[in-house]
Every structure is written in structure tokens, then in C-alpha cells.
Design brief:
Methane Monooxygenase Hydroxylase, Chain G, domain 1; cell membrane; elongated; about 0% strand; about 80% helix; Memb_transporter_dom; YccS_N; transmembrane; mainly alpha; 28 helices
């Protein structure tokens, strides 16, 4: 237990989150000390505000985008500060600017995550400007100038430290992705042997899929974009190899999502024959989690003898099953376990590739992704005005959030002025950091902010009682600031606690009565939390179930494209490999969006979770369809397959047509192409007959004494079994999805 806690502490201290906390804190403390030493302390706040306000846009991504984003942020924050300071003598003018700026800046989130952070910096500048005491025009412009210099200083500090430790973000993201992938594989292991109810585990996979895909997108920007610009290095190739292996593992784990009801029928409800396969998944999961720590700690790579033992035990289970049930009765179960075992061996190969990459950093890896191909895998954010126009409608989640936040901020400002609340800007700041576009996240942040502030207040109260030492206050102010920034994305509750500690200790230098600071801080936070919660519930509520239609449409459309790419891969692997991988990426991202949307639905009030069971079934069906397609694609990629048959093409066409007709239910203006497929019943029968013929030939060989099967014959038997079963299953799944979407559309059209 003690060792585990020490490992967690080491991981935290060596993480890029802690490193970023140190960078931001140093960028504030160093100029403060410098201005104090030089005797220009009156200019220090302006400079420090400039550094602090422009730090939010410094998030993982390409260095070029970081610098450009921060420069835009510097220009925006300084202009907004000037605007508010000049308007302050006129209360109504200030109120008008607050409304317009809040709406405009929050609407920038239409351009993506980094743009939303730049908008957030602008909103922070607007709020802080309300308490800046600069009256004359000269003072205002000097204040703005030093804010610009502070922002440029932050860029210099950030870029310099980035050059010293250039791959900190890459390693952190790879570590987090490895850990999430390990957790995902662990849940899949539990699903194999779950005896009672798989629904809770399936819901957990939804959350993990969204998180993993989000990490993949950021890693693509970090690894592929930098590779495209600066060429290859051993370290870059190592990280790229790890990333490619992680993407392949993710596909394999998704592909390794079986028809569990069929498993129960084949192996019995308790699935004892699958215990060894589950144990192998668990062992590989643990290895991935260990490797995630090693990327950060740089410890030695652990041995994988346990995995090798589990792999052998799983392989022997197939022979034991055949011995118990005897062929030909055991063939169906044995082939199912054989396919499962093949997938697990492929996952293990990727785990070994990651181990190899972490060990052999000096050897050139076999990463053959061309620069022209790498560019196609990057999701580029558009910054055209049409993006804003597309969201300028009441049905847009971004538009509603901008309007909601504007009303809440204006209300907080008016409330503070009417009742002359001390430090009323804290209410506005609280609303700004708590109020999110959806109910669930706003509720969690409100709770974390209030609880964190109370925790920080109690700790600060105890420290102030125990000591009146300014040196202690100074040290604790610096430490709490580092921890607040380091935990901002990881644990918002404790980040809020450390922010409160920092504020109390800083105020302790200015005002001797620190208890009043704690009191007002808690009151302002509770008021801000209450305003945020009321706003998300009452003002233009955007319940997730009503925003699901477009996300469902995209997920089904991308699945259909993925299916078509898989069929093309089956026909010609060499010519269609890149097209397949691109379609796979798009389908996985669409799955991530759908999984994240479903998670948000579960966080909405129960009364707003309309038709929850139907939506759960639709989301599950969509995921299962993607898993079945991935299973086909993974098998086709890694095996020498026979030419695609007419019957197989017919089933592909049938599934494509059903998915296309499902798309039409969600968007009547969407154009589709219907493919001729002939008699599907005959096609199914002929495919099953092909498998039956191969089975009978195998039975005849066994009867003649040829018990050992040739590898080519085994692969052909596996192909006939997997392709026919997966395609027939997909026909049924796509039909069920269409029926489910039909009920969904019928229900919500009545609303």
C-alpha cells in the first residue's frame, strides 16, 4: 500500500500536469521578485496579470499552435482590459460591454477546444479588469502594455522550458492512453465471464471509448504534425510506434466484442471455458498499466512471463474443450475460441511492440507511415466565419451556452452592485469556471467548487490560527499555486481547495484579518454555484437526449463508410489499406462522440432522460455493429483470405442498404445509394453451406486419421466461420438498429 502511494506521488511529481503548474507559477513569481528588487512593484500586478491570463491556451498540441493561440490571447485580453477600464465610469456602458463580450467570447468555442480556452482568457480579463484601479488614460495604456509584456514573458518561459524538456506532453499523453487502454481491456475481460448483468460494464466502455479517442486525437496532432514538419528522429519514431500500436490495440479490443448471448449458449451461462481467455486479457491489461507508469518513471520494463503462461493456458483450453465435447460437436465452440485466441495473440504482439519501443530507443523502428499519409489522419480545425454562422441558431448547444452564460454573468454583476457585495467579482469568476454547456458537468463542477472552497477554507483557517508567520504564508502560497494549476484538469475539487488556500495566504500579506477573506470567499463561491446551477436548469436548458439526433446520424453514416472500406479491403488489401484505416479512424471518432453524448444523458436529471432504455439499446447496437465490422477488418488484415464470394458481397450490400435507409430516417435530405443484392436468404444459406462443406471435409480427414490440421486449411475454416457469422449477425444488428431508430424518430417527432 505504501509503495503504491509512493508510486502515485512519483507519477504526479513527474507528470506534465505538475510540470505545467511549476511553469505557470515560476512565470508569476520570478517577475514579482524581479519588480520588487528593482523597485517597480507598482507595475508588477499588470505584468503578472498578463502572464496569468494567457496561460490557459498553453495546452498539449503542436508548438506552433500554442504560440499562435497565446499571441491571439495576449491581443484579446489586453484589448478587453482597455475596453472595460475605459467604460468603468459609465455603469450602463460597462454592463453592455460585459453582455456583448461574454456572448462573443464564449461563442468562440465553435472553433474548438483551444479557441474556447482563448475565449475563457478573455472572459477572465474582463472580470479581473472590473477590480483594477487604473483611472487615467495613461495608466490604462501602461497597464495594457505591461499585460502584453507579461503575456510575451509567459510565451518565452513556456517555449524555453518546452525546449529543455520537449517531449513531456507526448509522454504524459501516451502514459494516460496506455492506462485507459489497459482499463478498457480489463472491462472486456470481465465481460467474457460476467454471469449476471453486463449492462454496467458496457456503460463503462462508453465512457472509456470517449476518453481514449480524445487522447488519440491529441496524440495525432502532437506526433503526426510534428513529424510532418521536422522529419524523423529516433525518439519521435519510438513514440509514433507506441501510438500506432495503441490504435491497433483499441481496434482489436473493439473487434474482440462478441455476441455474448451466443457465448452463453455455446459455453453455458457461467462460461468456465472462457476463464483462461479472461485471465489473459487481465494480464495484458496489467502490463499496459505498468508500461504507462514506466513511460513517466523511466523504471525497468517488467517481465511478461505471466502473460506467456496465460497465453499457453488459453491455447490449451481449446484442446481441453475439444477433448470434453468431441468433434464435430465441439467445432463451433472451438472455432469461436480459436478466433478469440487469435485476436488476443495480435493484442499481445502490439503490447510486445510497445515494450520493444520503450526498451530499444536507438534502433530505427519500422514505422512506414508516409508524410502524405500522416496528413490525412490529422483532424484539422476550420476557422472560417461560416462555422460561427452554422452555430448562430437557438438549437445550437454552443449558442444556448453563450446566451445562458451571458445572462448568468450579467446577473452576477448586477447582484454584486445592488447589494454592494465585497469582492463581488468572485461571484462572476465562480460562474465563469462552473457553468458548462451541459447539466452533468455543471453540477459536478459546482459541487467540487463549493466543497473544494470549504476544504481550502478550513485548512487555511487552521494554518492562520497556528501561525502568523509571513514566510510560512509565502511558501504555502507558492506551493498551493503550483498544486492548484497541476490539479486543474485532474481533480477540480482539490484544485479549488488550493486556489482558496493561495488566495487566503496572498490576502494575508495585504489584510491582517484573513478570516474575513475566508468568509467572503465561501459566500461568493456558494452564490456563484447557485447562480450556475439555476442557469443550467432554467435558461435554455439543453438536455442531451434532444441533441442526440445529429450525433446518431453521424455515427451510423461513419459505420456504413467503415463497412464499405472493409469490403474493399477484402477485395484488395494492398490498394485499400489506407482508405480502410482512415474510415476506421472516422468511425471510432463518431463512436466516441456518441459514447460521450450517452454519458451526458446519464448525468441529466432522471426526469429529462426520455426513452432512456431505447437510447441505451440504440447506442449499444451501434457499438456492436462497429465491433463486428472491426472484427471483420482485423481478420481480413492479418490473414490470407480467399477471393470475396458473390454471397458475401450480397450480405455486405444488404447491410449497407439497411444502414443507408436508417440514415434517411434521421436526415430526410441525405442522399443514399441502394445496391442490388439479390435473395439474402439464399446468400445466407450458401455461406453457411460453404462452412458446412469445409467442416464435413475436416470430419472426413479426422475419420481417415488426419487429426492434425494444416495451417492453410485452419485459416480457411476460420474465415468461413467468422465471415459468415459476423455478416449474418450484422444483417440482424442493422435491421434491429433501423427499427430502434424508427421508434426513436417517431417518439421525438411528437415532442
Amino acid at each position: 500500500m505504501a509503495k503504491s502511494k509512493l508510486t502515485k506521488l512519483e507519477l504526479f511529481v513527474k507528470s506534465s500536469h505538475f510540470f505545467r503548474g511549476v511553469v505557470i507559477t515560476l512565470s508569476l513569481i520570478v517577475p514579482l521578485l524581479a519588480f520588487n528588487t528593482l523597485g517597480y512593484m507598482s507595475l508588477a500586478p499588470s505584468f503578472i496579470f498578463g502572464a496569468f491570463l494567457n496561460s490557459p491556451s498553453d495546452v498539449p498540441g503542436s508548438l506552433r499552435r500554442k504560440v499562435i493561440g497565446t499571441l491571439i490571447s495576449i491581443l484579446l485580453t489586453s484589448l478587453i482590459t482597455v475596453l472595460i477600464l475605459f467604460s468603468k465610469p459609465n455603469h450602463y456602458l460597462t454592463l453592455g460591454f460585459i453582455g456583448l463580450l461574454t456572448f462573443g467570447l464564449s461563442f468562440l468555442s465553435a472553433y474548438g477546444f483551444r479557441a474556447s480556452l482563448i475565449g475563457f482568457s478573455g472572459l477572465l480579463a474582463m472580470t479581473i479588469a472590473l477590480v483594477v484601479e487604473q483611472n487615467s488614460a495613461q495608466e490604462i495604456w501602461i497597464h495594457a502594455l505591461y499585460m502584453v509584456l507579461g503575456g510575451l514573458w509567459y510565451i518565452l518561459a513556456s517555449v524555453t522550458l518546452h525546449k529543455i524538456i520537449p517531449k513531456k506532453d507526448d509522454d504524459q499523453l501516451l502514459s494516460e492512453t496506455l492506462k485507459l487502454t489497459g482499463k478498457y481491456l480489463k472491462i472486456r475481460a470481465k465481460l467474457l465471464i460476467e454471469e449476471v448483468d453486463r449492462k454496467p460494464l458496457i456503460k463503462q466502455t462508453f465512457a472509456l471509448q470517449a476518453q481514449i479517442n480524445e487522447k488519440h486525437e491529441t496524440l495525432r496532432e502532437l506526433l503526426l504534425a510534428s513529424r510532418k514538419r521536422s522529419g524523423r528522429s529516433h525518439f519521435d519514431e519510438k513514440r509514433l510506434l507506441i501510438f500506432i500500436s495503441l490504435v491497433d490495440i483499441f481496434e482489436l479490443v473493439i473487434a474482440n466484442s462478441w455476441d455474448y448471448e451466443k457465448f452463453d449458449d455455446l459455453f453455458g451461462k457461467k462460461n468456465k471455458h472462457l476463464d483462461k481467455f479472461s485471465k489473459l486479457n487481465m494480464s495484458m491489461s496489467q502490463q499496459l498499466i505498468q508500461l504507462s507508469q514506466i513511460i513517466i518513471t523511466k523504471d525497468e520494463i517488467p517481465e511478461n512471463k505471466e502473460i506467456e503462461k496465460c497465453l499457453l493456458e488459453a491455447h490449451n483450453t481449446i484442446a481441453d474443450y475439444i477433448t470434453i465435447h468431441q468433434l464435430p460437436q465441439a467445432r463451433e465452440g472451438a472455432l469461436t475460441m480459436r478466433n478469440l485466441h487469435d485476436f488476443q495473440k495480435k493484442i499481445l504482439q502490439e503490447v510486445e511492440a510497445i515494450r520493444y519501443a520503450l526498451t530499444n530507443i536507438t534502433k530505427t523502428s519500422k514505422v512506414t507511415l508516409k508524410r502524405s499519409e500522416a496528413k490525412q489522419f490529422l483532424t484539422l480545425q476550420e476557422y472560417k466565419p461560416k462555422i460561427l454562422l452554422q452555430h448562430f441558431a437557438i438549437h445550437s448547444v454552443i449558442f444556448r451556452h453563450a446566451l445562458r452564460l451571458t445572462i448568468a454573468i450579467v446577473f452576477a454583476f448586477v447582484l454584486g452592485n445592488i447589494f454592494e457585495i465585497q469582492n463581488a467579482y468572485w461571484i462572476m469568476l465562480t460562474v465563469l469556471v462552473i457553468l458548462r454547456p451541459n447539466y452533468g458537468l455543471t453540477k459536478e463542477r459546482a459541487k467540487d467548487r463549493i466543497v473544494g472552497t470549504l476544504i481550502g477554507g478550513v485548512i487555511a483557517f487552521g494554518i492562520v490560527i497556528l501561525t502568523q508567520n509571513e514566510i510560512v504564508y509565502g511558501i504555502l502560497a507558492v506551493v498551493s499555486l503550483i498544486l492548484a494549476f497541476a490539479l486543474m484538469q485532474q481533480n477540480y475539487r482539490w484544485a479549488a481547495a488550493f486556489i482558496t488556500l493561495n488566495v487566503v495566504f496572498i490576502y494575508s500579506f495585504i489584510h491582517p484579518n484573513a478570516f474575513s477573506v475566508i468568509q467572503y470567499r465561501v459566500v461568493d463561491t456558494v452564490l456563484g454555484g447557485a447562480i450556475s446551477f439555476a442557469a443550467i436548469y432554467v435558461l435554455f436548458p439543453s438536455w442531451e437526449v434532444l441533441n442526440l439526433k445529429s450525433i446518431l446520424f453521424k455515427a451510423i453514416k461513419k459505420n456504413n463508410a467503415y463497412l464499405n472500406a472493409t469490403q474493399e479491403l477484402y477485395m484488395d488489401k494492398e490498394a485499400n489499406s489506407l482508405t480502410y484505416k482512415l474510415a476506421r479512424k472516422e468511425a471510432f471518432l463518431a463512436l466516441s462522440e456518441l459514447s460521450a453524448a450517452f454519458q451526458r444523458i446519464t448525468q441529466d436529471p432522471k426526469s429529462k432522460q426520455l426513452e432512456f432504455r431505447l437510447i441505451y439499446n440504440i447506442v449499444t447496437l451501434n457499438q456492436t455493429i462497429l465491433s463486428a465490422i472491426a472484427s471483420l477488418g482485423s481478420f481480413i488484415q492479418s490473414h490470407k483470405t480467399t477471393p470475396i464470394s458473390k454471397e458475401t458481397s450480397a450480405l455486405f450490400a444488404k447491410i449497407t442498404n439497411t444502414l443507408s435507409r436508417t440514415e434517411i430516417l434521421l436526415d430526410e435530405e441525405h442522399e443514399i445509394k441502394i445496391h442490388a443484392h439479390g435473395n439474402i436468404k439464399d446468400a445466407k444459406e450458401k455461406l453457411l453451406e460453404s462452412y458446412q462443406i469445409l467442416s464435413e471435409e475436416r470430419d472426413a480427414n479426422i475419420a481417415e486419421g488426419y487429426v492434425k490440421i494444416k495451417k492453410a486449411d485452419l485459416h480457411q475454416l476460420q474465415e468461413a466461420h467468422l465471415i459468415s457469422n459476423q455478416l449474418i449477425w450484422l444483417v440482424s444488428l442493422s435491421s434491429n438498429l433501423r427499427k430502434g431508430i424508427g421508434r426513436y424518430v417517431e417518439h421525438f417527432e411528437k415532442k
